Amino acid sequence: MNNIIEITDFNAPELDIYARLTENQLLNRHEPDKGIFIAESPKVIERALDAGCEPISILIEKKHIETQGKDILERCGDIPIYTAEFDVLTQLTGFKLTRGMLCAMKRPLLPSIEEVCKDKNRIVILENVMNPTNVGAIFRSAAALNMDAVLLTSGCSNPLYRRSIRVSMGTVFQIPWTFIENDNYDTFDVSIIPETNNVPSSYIDEIKALGFKTAAMALDDNSVSIDDSVLNSEEKLAIILGTEGDGLATSTIADCDYTVKIPMAHGVDSLNVAAASAVAFWQLGKK
Question: What distance in Å separates the CA atoms of residue 245 and residue 261, rounded to the nearest whole number?
């Protein structure tokens, strides 16, 4: 391979994208078409490639070029392949967790809410879930437990942050997702709403207009149990999870068709949002 470039100095500019750019710099909000994300480990990189993500460059420990990285390198064409010995790469925070391989990729353009929800029966909505570890764990549970898509409000951590991708084990590339960006919904396609041209005033209204019943996961006494048979009988259901600590906004709960509570034992008052998501997806994703 003529595109292999050996790095001997951790301060080499070729490593900036992997070692020194912040998540916000990679995201590039001002020019989203130039946004980048970093995929870590061969399995995650393979899942990103399978999803059609475009690689920019690869950083790989030298000993893996002809072993676990060989098939991936062959899939990536003539992009730069940076390589170094382990003692150079371990200066990069978290490198020991990457199984010896990182890949910089272009951020894909996000689909519309309508595109993500088309022909789906079980979707997840995350409202201001800010911890990237939680976002990654929720995606992994969603993919494993029969959820069809994920929507995120703009206050959520980005699923393509490195930690989110890593924790999700690359399932962020296997399940459709997008952000709910427009708080005023002035670009909503009103033609999908039967018998009315009223523009939705909240994302809950938009999801309902797409034919989904909405289930707010909340610690509320005025709720149904998660094993209520009515929930599973709904053909199209959106499961809505709130921010760490405070949970869902009061207005969100009020706008939903159901408020759903996971029964607790031993005086425990709540579960971490990622743990709660797994319970909810297991129960409500049964087919």
Answer: 16
pLDDT at 194 over 60: no
Residue 234 φ then ψ, to 5°: -70, 130
Task: State how far the Cα of 60 lies from the Cα of 117, in Å rounded to an integer.
Answer: 37
Distance of CA 257 to the CA centre of its chain: 25
CA distances (Å), origin 194, targets 6, 53, 118, 182? 60, 36, 16, 22
pLDDT for 201 equals 57
Beta-sheet pairing, 81-84 with 122-126: unpaired
Rounded to an integer, what distance in angstroms lies between the CA atom of residue 195 and that of residue 250? 29
Residue 40 contacts residue 118 (beta carbons within 8 Å)? no
Beta bridge partners of 204: none
Task: Print burial letters for 259-280: b (CB count within 10 Å at least 16), e (below 16).
Answer: bbbbeeeeeeeebebbebbbbb
For residue range 78-107, list pLDDT tens digits in order.
999 999 888 888 787 667 667 789 999 999
CA geometry: angle 255, 259, 263, nearest 5 deg:
165
Q: What is the pLDDT of residues 118-158, one digit of tens each?
A: 999 999 999 999 999 999 999 999 999 999 999 999 999 99
**What distance in Å separates the CA atoms of residue 95 and residue 84, rounded to the nearest whole number?**
12
C-beta of residue 136 within 8 angstroms of C-beta of residue 167: yes
Burial class of residue 74, CB neighbours in 10 A (0-12, 13-18, 19+): exposed
